[in-house]
Each structure stands twice: as C-alpha cells, then as structure tokens.
Amino acid sequence: MIENLRIRRIISMLLDHFIMCMIIVPPLITIAIIGEGKTESLVSPYGEYIFFSFIFIYLNKDFFQGKSIAKRILGYQIVDRKRCVSANEFQCFVRNLTICIAWPLEVIISLFSPQRRIGDFFANTMVIQTEKQKFKLIIKDIKSTRLKLNFIGIILIAIVYFYSLNLFFL
Hints:
Elements (H helix, E strand, L loop, with lengths): L1 H33 L5 H4 L1 H15 L9 H6 L1 E5 L8 H8 L2 H14 L5 H6 L1 E5 L7 H8 L4 H21 L1
Antiparallel strand pairs: 1-2
Helix pairs in contact: 1-3, 1-6
Pfam family, one: RDD
Protein name: RDD family protein
Organism: Paralabilibaculum antarcticum
C-alpha cells in the first residue's frame, strides 16, 4: 500500500503540473501571437506581469478546499498538520512557493515522504487521502468561494516573491 501511495502522489504531482501547464501555456502562446509574434511582447514589463499572473494561478491551484483538480480526481487534500482541517489559502500558497525553484527536488522528496514535501514543512501542512471527487465539483467550489483578507496578503507576498525572483534571474 505504501508503494501505491508513493506512486499515486507522484502521479498527482505530475497530473497537477500537466493540467496547470495546459491552462497556462495556451494563453501565453495566444498573447505571443497577438503581440505580432515578436518576443518583445512577452519581454516587455506588461509581458512579465502577464507571465507572473499565470504563475500566480499555478501556485494557487490548491485554493479551493486544499484540493487541486488532480487531487480531486485522485482523492487527496492538503490539510493543516496540527488541526487536520483543510489548509487555508495562505498555507496552500506558501506550500507551492518552492515549486518555482525546486520542482524536481519536490518530486524526489515525495518518493520518500508521500504525505509531505519541502513546501509542506514551510506551510505546516500535509497531504491526506480523501474521497475521489468528480471534476464538475470544482465549479461549485469556485462559485461558493468569497474574497478573503488573506487573499490580499497572498497577492502582496506574491508581488515581492516574483519581483525577487525576477531580480535573481536577470
């Protein structure tokens, strides 16, 4: 059963990555085409904002009850480690910050620790098994979600984080 859990967690991570890339990449390609196919359209400051907005979406894929699309399909949820309740939006965001710089390492860590990866240690979260859900339930969760104060904090932290990454890689 442990080996099955490890394999399912890796599949969940890869499926999450695939789904988010399928959501993010087509709009970026469209923007490049609309920008007359010039690379300057994505290199300009506005292009950076657009690019980082899509990365922000990627980092917040678990916002809805601690479950991304792949986690819903495979039956996983991110929970607060101390209280065993659904992780809040801020915890999910912090948990995924390490993906930008250590995604391959996160996958390797998950082979040895299927319930916790590096980001879970920073966010004080873990992944548990839950009932598998149908894909259409995510729409219901999106409709029932309201803007919270910690979402504004997450946006501010994301701005600082992405600005720092941008300076680091330039």
